[in-house]
Amino acid sequence: MGGTFDPVHYGHLRLAEEMAEAVGLARVLFIPAGQPPHRGAPRTESPHRLAMVRRAVAGNPRFAADSREVDSPRPSYTVDTLTALRAELGDARPLWLLTGADAFLGLPTWHEWQLLFGLANIIVATRPRAQPLAADALPDTLRDAVSHRLVADAGDAGPAGSVLLRPMTPLDISATAIRDTLGRGRSARYLLPDAVLDYIHEHHLYGQP
Ligand code: ATP
Ligand code: MG
C-alpha cells in the first residue's frame, strides 16, 4: 500500500485491515512515497512521514513500514516498487496493490501504468466522496484496461493481473483535512492513532506549537 501518508490515519489503516482480510494477505507493507511524481512536494519531510507510519503499524504483526521509496533519491514510481517486490517474492506468489478509489481512478496518469497488471493484482476500496466503484462507471481508458481483469473474489485471482473492487467501511478521513484541522489549532484525535498524534506534537508538525 502506497501513499504520501502526510500523516497516516485510520482511513489508511482500516483500508489495509479490511482488504487484507478480504484477500487473506499474510503481510501488508505500507510504503510512503519519497518524491511523489504526481503531486506537489508533501508538506512533511519523508523521514517524519515514515516515522509516523512506523508508529501507526507497531503492534499489528501483519503490518510493516517499508522505507524503500523514502530511501531512494529517484521519484517514487509504483511500477519500480512492484518490480522490486516481485523480484523478491518470485513469480508464483500473489502480490496485491492496495488503493482507495480516488487513487485508482487516477491510475492512467501513473508512469508505465499498463505494466502494473503484469506485476500485481489490484484491490480498490471505496472511499467517501470518490466516484462510486462500478465497472460500468469507470472512465473509458480505465474500463478498457481492467474490465476483463475484474474478479468478484480474491480466490479467483492468480499471482497478478486481476482487479477487485471492494466496499469498505466508509471513513471520511483525509490527510488534507487532518493537516487543515491541526493547522487551525483544532483536535484531530480519533482520526488517527494517538501514537501518531503524539509524534506530530513532539516534532511540531502541521503547525503544532
Ligand atoms: P491527502 O489528503 O494528502 O491526499 P489521503 O488521506 O488521500 O491524503 P494518501 O496518502 O493520499 O492519503 O492515500 C494513500 C492511499 O489511501 C490512497 O490509495 C487513497 O485512496 C487511500 N485512502 C486514504 N484515505 C482513505 C479513506 N478514508 N478511505 C479509503 N481510502 C483511503
Ligand atoms: Mg490522497
Record the SSE blueprint.
Layout: E1 2-3, H1 10-23, E2 28-32, H2 46-57, E3 63-65, H3 68-71, H4 78-89, E4 96-100, H5 101-105, H6 116-119, E5 121-125, H7 140-146, E6 163-166, H8 175-183, H9 194-202
What is shown here, in short?
By secondary structure, the chain is α/β, with parallel strands linked by helices. It is built from 9 helices and 6 strands. It has helices at residues 10-23, 46-57, 68-71, 78-89, 101-105, 116-119, 140-146, 175-183, 194-202; strands at 2-3, 28-32, 63-65, 96-100, 121-125, 163-166.
What does this structure look like?
By secondary structure, the protein is of the alpha/beta class. The protein has a single domain, classed as Rossmann fold (3-Layer(aba) Sandwich). It is 36% helix and 11% strand. It has nine helices and six strands. The protein has helices at 10-23, 46-57, 68-71, 78-89, 101-105, 116-119, 140-146, 175-183, 194-202, and strands at residues 2-3, 28-32, 63-65, 96-100, 121-125, 163-166. Strands 1-2-3 form a three-stranded parallel β-sheet. It has a three-stranded parallel β-sheet with strand order 4-5-6. Helix 7 links the parallel strand 5 (121-125) and strand 6 (163-166). Helix 2 (46-57) runs antiparallel to helix 9 (194-202). It starts with a strand and ends in a 7-residue tail after the last helix. The mean pLDDT is 95. Bound molecules: adenosine-5'-triphosphate (ATP) and magnesium ion (MG). The site of adenosine-5'-triphosphate (ATP) has 18 residues, from helix 1, strand 4, helix 5 and helix 8.
